Amino acid sequence: MATFTSHTRFLLHLHRTHLHHRTYQFRNAPPIHRTQHTYTHTPRKPTRLKLPPTLSLFVAVSGLIYYAATFHISPQPKTLNPQTFTAYTLASKTPVATSPPSHTTIFSLRPVHPPGQQLPSTEGILSVQIKQPQLQIARSYSPLPSNTGEEDDGALRFLVKLEPGGEVTRYLFSLGVEDKVFLRGPTVEYIFPPAGEVDKTLFIAGGTGIAPALQLAANSLAPETEIFWAVRSRAETGGAMAEEVGRLVRKAGGKVSVRVFVDEEGGIGVHDVERGMEGGKVAVVVSGPEGFIKWVAGEKVWRGGREEQGKLGGMVRKVLEKRGGEVTVFKL
Fold first, then answer.
1. Annotated binding residues, as ranges?
2. Is the pLDDT of residue 56 over 80?
3. Is the pLDDT of residue 9 over 90?
4. How far is CA 302 from CA 21, 135, 141, 306, 327, in A?
């Protein structure tokens, strides 16, 4: 029998006891459809209102005084928070691989007003919104785990793939070092199971979905964490990302293992997922593009303006239908 966790997103400023309620955060409100009406009227001749010169001067001066008095009422926030966007500076852009040219890059963002604060990653997998200011849209990204001793200034690092149709990714790749970037968050996307609740966490990640997988591996309380990382090309796993993964595995001291599946070399199959789901009480977490999530565990659905987990499907369902058992599944 398969059990599911609720698709739950929580803001960290909520009280701890609220984290287990079925509370939802909405990234996009449903559009409001209005009936279009056409009106016709004959415009009236405009009437000009003339004010005495002294009164006009008084109104102008009063407006300037009000503007000067209120200009600093709402200063730009200096620390990352879930309500408003905070300024960061692009410190570096590190391509994952240099040959062939990489379309995946690690962006390091440093707060404009240090000292910043580290994200409280022990609650669960976190995401942070990055704003595209020209279009006034934002997209959520999971930060990579912090490097101890290297990010005391509050810097955040994001693994981003350039998507041809992605407005936010194209904006990020167009930026130069020292350019401003605006962030909001964090949001808890997935709460780590309490100690003793699961024997193992299996994280199946597609492409840049490895970022939340590494975040989980660095902070999860499960005795064992196994990551299946599916990529199109082995070049995606080299360079800077090879260093990231290797550093985390060494730091975990045997509690974390990472296995790479390359599409060009056969990719990941049902038998791989079946083997990964062995080991007692297992929590399965899936992250990546929509098509990848659907293929592994069934698609997520939108219902009533809310993104929900949807039915269990894909390879995980096939494994359970074949052997039975119980597993907790969550799709990021």
1. 139, 141, 159, 161, 168
2. no
3. no
4. 19, 24, 20, 5, 23
